[in-house]
Amino acid sequence: MLWISCFPTASLFLLLFMCFPGQNAKTSEVVEQSPLYVNPQQGQSINITCALKSSHEDEGFYLLKTQMQPERVLYVSSQNGSTIFPAFANRLEFSKEEKKILITLHNLQKNDSDVYVCAGMLKSSTFLSVNRSGTMVLVKEVEQTHCSNNSWGIYGLIIVVALLFFALICCTLYRVDMKKYFQKRKPNAVYEDMSYSSRRNTLIRANAYVTDN
After folding, report:
1. Least enclosed by CB within 10 Å: which of 48, 83, 94, 113?
2. What would the pLDDT profile of 174-207 be if each residue is shown by its tens digit?
3. Alpha-carbon span 10 to 114, nearest angstrom
């Protein structure tokens, strides 16, 4: 499945991101983020919480996809102005309380699998302060249990039909063999009766001949 094959790649990219965060971002403990890892099914929703732990005044939050398909997902300014970028248009909700933001991503698809990172903009810094680990999201396919049950039902029906067909063939062959057996037995019985009658007539004639003489 796709989400399994993406797991080693995502882990490698996350490690590289932690070691080489980029020229316009720096990893720090200023931004707290949870959860570390989620594994939803297609169509499900997840929550990502970002919190800015700094006494400095912030300018806003970013939520970024950083590895598979790097792009911006959400920007929320300190004045609560927001921009939801096309990747999650009509699929994202958020609520903000002071320096904490709760983001909900809806109707997740396989291509949404990625490492999502919260980044804070501080007025006292020219860099983005990003969370060190981010949230790894690996979307898995919906299990087709209904189809599996139907498949087992079809296989069972095929087996039953095959057994009935085999039984019909065996019964037909048995009846043919019995007919052949009786057809072979009848001529033998007639032949034996004719032989017996012929011998009896011969004996009678011989006796009659002897008596006449």
Report:
1. 83
2. 776 666 656 665 555 444 555 556 655 665 655 5
3. 7
Q: What pTM did the predictor assign?
A: 0.57
pLDDT tens for 3-49 read 333 434 444 444 444 443 443 445 556 789 999 999 999 999 999 99
Residues 33 and 110 in one domain: yes
Report if residue 143 sits inside a domain: no
Give 119: exposed, middle or buried? Use CB within 10 Å, 0-12, 13-18, 19+. Answer: buried
Q: 212 by DSSP, 3-state: which?
A: helix
Alpha-carbon gap, residue 47 to 92, rounded angstroms: 10
Return the amino acid letter for 162. Answer: A
Domain presence at residue 142: no
* Nearest Cα to Cα of residue 10 among 141, 114, 118, 130: 114
> How far apart (Å, rounded) are the C-alpha atoms in residues 180 and 92?
81
Domain range holding 182? 149-213
Domain check: are 118 and 157 in the same one? Answer: no
